[in-house]
Specification:
The chain is mostly helical and about 575 residues long. The chain contains 27 helices and seven strands. The longest helix has about 30 residues. The two termini are about 45 Å apart. This is Delta 8-(E)-sphingolipid desaturase.
Length: about 575
């Protein structure tokens, strides 16, 4: 795409003001362009080397990624990004739908030929370059009737749950039932609920939310809440040492099941520190935190830190999106939205999540199978880790080139000490080995409950490209209310909504931040979802049961149509 030579000849390229049309043209030519702090960054050269994976960047193409980038990156990383600046923008940026999410773009010359000028016309810009805000329905208007139906929450109600109890697909209503299938009408119903509950999507409202979020971000930095409390990690280390010692002592005396119990609890606790290190929340030094994370995850736990970072960064960008968030893509075993019935394509795994007969059977009973399946969750993490390392899905060059090789060394070391020295050499009988392995792995199931608890019961509706980062994070994430003395058990995962707003904040400071986030939510009128651990589990089971009922109803409808010989779309 050619920029005006007379302009570029008088000033450095990074100072050239680019129009929305010009940025669209760059993306149409397969350039990876994002907007950060009013700067236009073309990061094609960095895409393969990004330590957090390429997918996270791809979900930001054509968008103002300022809040996401600041939340997930260090000051040094932000400075590094300036190397990729190719221009700047003026005024408020209107987001495009990224290509990975289905956005369509025209080259600059095609746009000029179609319109006759480089305009910022709303209709031609949105209509020709990206599909409507919602992937299924008309563009969402923040001032629609749904906004007028929004409930008003007083200060007390702000602290309690904000999740709607969705009815079955039999009882919803739709504005135009003749034009929507049953499943599409259900989707529209869920969008309507969120539009009625959360702030309007008009620019003024969302800009106000963003401004207050950035002020809160600055306040937290000024109060030192992004600085790690190393005394807390000394306490953690003491706990780890005790558990590891008990594992060895009990193994030495032949108490294999109990020894496996201590090792499993140790693994459960260590994951929380890996999570901190993966977000650079311990020392805030890229190399040191990476080494800490790999030593714990790979050498001690047999899991890949690189796989987790690639997966987790996408999760932080597109939280609870059925097509894009790998943390809720568990077909054929679980589905938290009826949209999985459409055999969606996962942009993360790059495959179809087929709604086949096995999935149809499993989903009908998923609320009964939830806890039993999670008992085997760690085995699936091994598979995902090996797939990531063997297939070389991480960066092969750049600052993270060495991660894969250190992780592979860690995997070899883990299976040597755990698989050979402990399981094979230290336990004499097959029954003892089986008991040790199963107990040590199944006892980590609470971790998988904690991970899914914060999102499975929350909204999966897509409110489009105009929703701000802080609103989306709070709409798709819940916190778990627990006493302070129990914080060690949850390891910071009880503050997931706060963590999604400030991912690099050390977990030992999240409780101190909670009241400030609650004040922010009241100020911007965003419901803050807070449940007790038991009530949160009830919400998750309720969501799984609801989707299971929808699956059963759909199956019955399809069976009835097949019996009548009606092959039309239901």
């Amino acid at each position: 795409m050619a920029l005006a030579s007379s302009v570029s000849g008088r000033m450095p390229q990074k100072d050239v003001v680019l129009t929305r049309r010009q940025v669209e043209g760059m993306i149409a030519e397969d350039r990876t362009v994002i907007i950060v702090d009013g700067k236009v960054l073309k990061v094609d050269a960095w895409l393969r080397y990004h330590p957090g994976g390429d997918k996270a960047i791809m979900h930001m193409v054509g968008r103002d990624a300022t809040d996401e980038v600041h939340a997930l990156h260090s000051v040094e990383a932000l400075q590094h990004m300036l190397k990729f600046q190719v221009g700047k923008i003026e005024g408020r940026w209107r987001n495009f739908l990224p290509p990975i999410q289905g956005g369509k773009f025209r080259t600059y010359s095609d746009a000029i030929e179609a319109t006759g000028e480089d305009t910022e016309d709303e209709d031609t810009s949105i209509g020709s370059s990206s599909p409507p805000d919602s992937p299924l329905f008309d563009a969402i208007d923040g001032s629609s009737d749904f906004r007028r139906r929004r409930r008003s929450y007083n200060s007390e109600l702000h602290e309690v749950s904000s999740i709607s109890s969705l009815s079955s697909i039999e009882s919803h209503t739709t504005n135009d039932p003749g034009k929507l299938s049953t499943m599409d009408a259900r989707t529209q119903h869920e969008i309507d609920l969120d539009l009625a509950k959360y702030p309007a999507l008009d620019p003024a409202t969302q800009d106000d939310i963003v401004q207050k979020y950035r002020l809160l971000f600055g306040r937290l930095r000024a109060e030192g809440l992004f600085q790690c409390n190393y005394t807390s990690y000394f306490i953690e280390l003491s706990r780890y040492t005790f558990l590891f010692s008990m594992f060895l002592i009990l193994l030495r005396y032949g108490w294999y099941g109990t020894s496996g119990l201590c090792l499993g609890i140790l693994w459960h606790q260590l994951v929380f520190t890996v999570h901190d290190a993966g977000h650079m929340g311990i020392t805030h030094n890229f190399t040191i935190d990476t080494v800490v994370g790999i030593v714990i995850a790979d050498f001690i736990g047999g899991l890949s830190l690189g796989w987790w970072k690639r997966n987790h960064n996408v999760h932080h960008i597109v939280t609870n999106s059925p097509e894009h968030d790998p943390d809720i893509e568990h077909m054929p075993f679980f589905a938290i939205s009826h949209r999985f019935f459409d055999s969606l394509r996962s942009t993360y795994y790059d495959r179809i999540m087929t709604y086949d007969p096995f999935a149809k059977f499993m989903l009908r009973y998923q609320h009964y199978l939830y806890y039993p399946i999670l008992l085997f969750g760690r085995f699936n993490l091994y598979r995902l880790s090996w797939e990531y390392l063997i297939m070389g899905q991480g960066p092969k060059k750049g600052p993270a080139w060495w991660h894969r090789w250190l992780e592979i060394a860690g995997q070899v070391f883990f299976w040597y000490w755990f698989g050979y020295k402990v399981v094979y050499q230290s336990i004499p009988t097959a029954a003892g080995r089986f008991a040790f392995v199963m107990v040590s792995h199944m006892i980590t199931a609470p971790l998988h409950v904690q991970i899914t608890l914060s999102h499975f019961a929350m909204s999966t509706a897509d409110l489009g490209i105009n929703e701000s980062f802080p609103q989306k994070m709070l709409r798709t994430t819940m916190d778990v209310d627990c006493p302070e003395w129990l914080d060690f058990f949850h390891g910071g995962l009880q503050f997931q909504a706060i963590h999604h707003l400030f991912p690099r904040m050390p977990r030992h400071n999240l409780r101190r931040t909670q009241k400030l986030v609650q004040e922010f939510c009241r100020e911007v009128d965003i419901p803050y979802a807070l449940y007790g651990f038991v009530d949160g589990n009830k919400e998750v089971i309720g969501r799984l049961a609801d989707v299971g009922r929808q699956a059963a109803i759909l199956a019955q409808c399809q069976k009835t149509l097949a019996e009548k010989g009606d092959y039309g779309h239901h």
